[in-house]
Write a structure and sequence with these properties.
3 domains; seven-stranded mixed sheet; three-stranded antiparallel sheet; 15% strand; coproporphyrinogen oxidase activity; transit peptide; HemN_C; S-adenosyl-L-methionine; 4Fe-4S
């Protein structure tokens, strides 16, 4: 759902502030594209559906119900499938949340971002801290154990102590899932410009790193499992939808600017494609009405590219990459073959950042915090092992 009430100062997502939305036309196109892509992918069973945006809680519950109905008609959508809706506190009063529940939503992800009104204004959010806590309370009443909240860190001028105070306050109100996201300044956003023009101080990466480390320790103490770099859950309340991304499962992206990764049927074989749908909503709708879908870009993924994704995504989780999981994507070359003899990897293991054992390859608690720097060693190692995996044919032999 690509529409928002206003653009937040840090956001460079594909979103639009419309004068008016023809929701019936949008709904019809979302249903059509979902049907087309399900047919193209040959998918027989859908494990989860995620309504993201934009601000999908601005759509009507009727639109959500229509998409879910289309999915259920085209494939098996089990009754206990996870159906998540992203929610902004201002666009989601309790009665509306209940209507989304009746439409088939059973999990909410609330873009709370901060419990400080000054920070919320800086971020261009349309809600206050009290709006956020009220929406959270209503959401937990309607969807107990299935409400996730986002909290941002590393904002300009933000300090560790007050931010940890917000996190502890949030722990008094939250459910069983919290995501901690560090602000990244993106070109073209208001916040980027303000920092460029020295109207705001640049975020301090050292302070952000300290917030993250302290924050994850606070959450661990509160009984949360850090099951992914930015995501924390207790009582088993992991996001199964996001887990599919990190496990490099297949997924269909429906709607303007949506991304997908799947193997099209009958298109000459078994190659997974990365797909991006047309960004601009009106153009996307025209294409869907004309062709049944608005896919703008299709990129076939080579075997090595897919393995690079398996590595980079899998290591974001606390489970890492098991030998069995790796084998599904690469039956010949084992994790031991790729990383077992590497001196650089040995150093990372001795430093306590990485583990490679009978279970597979994974980051330690310390390693998860510095994953990006570990990948600088691991990805070239994979590329090298891949190039050497078959002996070159002898010229004239």
């Amino acid at each position: 759902w690509p529409y928002c009430e206003k653009r937040c100062s840090y956001c460079n997502f594909n979103k639009y502030i419309p004068r008016g939305v023809e929701e019936a036309a949008m709904r019809s196109c979302l249903v059509t594209e979902a049907q087309t892509l399900l047919r193209l992918s040959g998918v027989r069973r859908v494990e989860s559906v995620f309504f993201g945006g934009g601000t999908p809680s601005l759509a009507s519950p009727r639109t959500v119900a229509a998409v879910l109905e289309a999915v259920a008609q085209a494939t098996c959508l089990p009754a206990d499938s996870e159906v998540t809706l992203e929610v902004n506190p201002t666009s989601a009063p309790g009665s509306r949340l209940a209507a989304f529940g009746a439409a088939g939503v059973n999990r909410l992800s609330i873009g709370l971002q901060s419990l400080d009104d000054t920070e919320l204004r800086l971020l261009g959010r349309t809600h206050s801290a009290s709006d956020a806590l009220r929406t959270l309370a209503e959401a937990r009443h309607l969807f107990p154990g299935r409400v996730s909240v986002d909290l941002m860190l590393g904002l300009p001028a933000q300090q560790v102590g007050p931010w940890l105070g917000q996190l502890r306050e949030l722990l008094r109100h939250c459910d069983d899932h919290i995501s901690l996201y560090q602000l990244s300044l993106e070109r073209g956003t208001t916040l980027f410009t303000q920092v460029q023009q020295n109207a705001l101080p640049a975020p301090d990466p050292e302070i952000a790193a300290e917030m993250y480390q302290e924050g994850r320790a606070v959450l661990r103490e509160a009984g949360f499992r850090q099951y992914e770099v930015s995501n924390f859950a207790r009582n088993g309340a992991l996001s199964t939808h996001n887990w599919t991304y990190w496990q490099c499962g297949q997924y269909l992206g429906v709607g303007p600017g949506a991304h997908g990764r799947f193997m099209p049927q009958g298109a000459g074989g078994y190659i997974r494609e990365a797909r991006i749908q047309t960004l601009e909503p009106d153009n996307w709708m025209k294409e869907v009405m004309l062709c049944g879908h608005g896919t703008r870009k299709r990129v076939p993924l080579g075997e090595l590219e897919l393995l690079e994704e398996v590595l980079a995504m899998g290591l974001r989780t606390d489970v890492g990459i098991t030998h069995q999981h790796w084998q599904q994507f690469e039956p010949q070359l084992t994790l031991w073959d790729v990383f077992g003899a590497s001196t650089e990897v040995k150093v990372l293991r001795e430093q306590g950042f990485l583990l490679l054992d009978h279970r597979g390859l994974r980051c330690s608690w310390e390693g998860l915090a510095v994953l990006d720097s570990l990948l600088l060693t691991l990805l070239p190692q994979l590329q090298e092992a891949w190039q050497q995996r078959t002996p070159s044919p002898v010229p004239g032999g």
